[in-house]
TrEMBL record:
SUPFAM superfamilies cross-referenced by the UniProt entry: Protein kinase-like (PK-like) (SSF56112)
Key words of the record: ATP-binding, Kinase, Nucleotide-binding, Serine/threonine-protein kinase, Transferase
Superkingdom of origin: Eukaryota
Similarity remark: Belongs to the protein kinase superfamily. CMGC Ser/Thr protein kinase family. Lammer subfamily.
Domain Protein kinase residues, every copy: 77-404
EC number: 2.7.12.1
UniProt cross-references to Gene3D superfamilies, sorted A to Z: Phosphorylase Kinase, domain 1, Transferase(Phosphotransferase) domain 1
Official protein name in the record: dual-specificity kinase
Annotated Gene Ontology cellular component terms: nucleus
Organism of derivation: Prunus avium
């Protein structure tokens, strides 16, 4: 049986409506880091006597590997900096002495459930690599090893996540042409996975990485009250790759009841109706809206409010779904059909949060204007965000949508 690891704890523990995430390397300006060429000279010219493994240390209280910058992770890899951290462990940028290149190494916590999830991810990554012909848009695994009770997975080094890029830009949305390119590649990666009978189950902007860290800074708006010009950052390349396959399952495996990070969770999961490939497409719909708007579409941490937000944006939930809701979800409805809202709201703040949302069409036109792209994107989103998973677009169908045929 395969279960998702840490999905709820990543999002559900937060009591704040605004998502709080750890500061990432993307938030450090270019002037604060060494040039790539200078760093390469440092790592290439080091003495052979410094290539041994560091002294053994105890892990910290949460099972994270304890290290110092400049130390080795096995004699092959030199630790240069921390790139990120999550429930699973930490990602370290390292210099691969054998391949003579920079890599990202996911060092998993020395706790049984995270080690098991890491081995599942290794299996999935190897399956993805086995059939990849260079067009999957999935991150490439280079190697993996078990070091001092930590599963370590070696990846190609990529740039920041789309979420980190949005955060760096103060949540200024991406231009619609970039959203189109991101959406096409994301759908290609998910179509590739679905062809292999794999379901990602945790699609979100944090798990979509730009291939390159390079960006340009352009004037964005000018305040009328001063001469201060505001800037926005745009990536030089639109190339992206999908990461984090620790929650991925094969369709024929037993499915856990709850998957997906809250904001991107499909209605069939909340209602306890079972889930399959279509849950990934719902997540993609939510992601595309977020890239256009700058903020998550459904910023909530509670099921009833989440369903009320869905109805506000997309219209009423179909009764054929609400009547089949499992015992845990029945409490969200009156007489088994209508959503118990706003009577069941936990607070006035919750009611206000739902009320301030626009319908999907107005939300998209507000951010990208009235244009052929706006109407075409809205139509695509309605197809991805169909309540009934049997009516939702597949990844291959979505790739054939007219939105992806508009010239950029």
């Amino acid at each position: 049986m395969v279960t998702t690891v840490g999905v709820e704890t990543r999002m559900e523990n937060s009591q704040s409506r605004i998502r709080k995430r750890p500061r990432s390397a993307w938030d450090v300006g270019p002037s604060q880091s060494e040039p790539e060429a200078q760093r390469a000279m440092v790592v290439c010219n080091e003495g052979i006597g410094r290539r041994g493994s560091p002294p053994k240390r105890d892990d910290d209280r949460e099972g994270h590997y304890v290290y110092n910058l400049g130390e080795n992770l096995t004699p092959r890899y030199k630790i240069l900096k921390k790139m990120g951290e999550g429930t699973f462990g930490r990602v370290l940028e390292c210099w691969d002495r054998q391949a003579r290149e920079y890599v990202a190494i996911k060092v998993v916590r020395s706790i049984r459930k995270y080690r098991e999830a890491a081995m599942i991810e290794v299996d999935v990554l190897q399956q993805l690599a086995k059939h990849d012909k260079g067009i999957s848009c999935c991150v490439q695994i280079h190697n993996w090893f078990d070091y001092r009770n930590h599963i370590c997975i070696v990846f190609e080094k990529l740039g920041p996540s789309l979420f980190d890029f949005l955060k760096r830009n103060k949540y200024c949305p991406f231009p619609v042409d970039l959203v189109r390119e991101f959406g096409r590649q994301l759908l290609e990666s998910v179509a590739y996975m679905h062809d292999l009978r794999l379901i990602h189950t945790d699609l979100k902007p944090e798990n979509i990485l730009l291939v390159s860290s390079e960006y340009v800074k352009l004037p964005h708006t000018k305040r009328f009250s001063s001469d201060e010009t505001h800037y926005r950052c745009l990536p030089k390349s639109s190339a992206i790759k999908l990461i984090d396959f620790g929650s991925t399952v094969f369709d024929n495996q037993i499915h856990s009841s709850i998957v997906s990070t809250r904001h991107y969770r499909a209605p069939e999961i909340i209602l306890g109706l079972g889930w399959s490939y279509p849950c990934d497409l719902w997540s993609i719909g939510c992601i595309l809206v977020e890239l256009c708007a700058g903020n998550a579409l459904f910023q909530t941490h509670e099921n009833l409010e989440h369903l009320a937000m869905m109805e506000r944006v997309l219209g009423p939930l179909p009764q054929q779904m609400t009547r089949r809701a499992n015992n845990g979800a029945e409490k969200y409805f009156r007489r088994g059909a209508r959503l118990n809202w706003p009577l069941g709201a936990v607070s006035r703040e919750s009611i206000r949060a739902v009320k301030k949302l626009d319908c999907l069409k107005d939300l998209i036109s507000r951010h990208i204007g009235s244009s052929k792209s706006s109407s075409s994107l809205t139509d695509l989103l309605y197809g991805l965000l169909k309540y009934d998973p049997s009516e939702r677009l597949t990844a291959r169908q979505a790739l054939d949508h007219p939105f992806f045929k508009i010239p950029t």
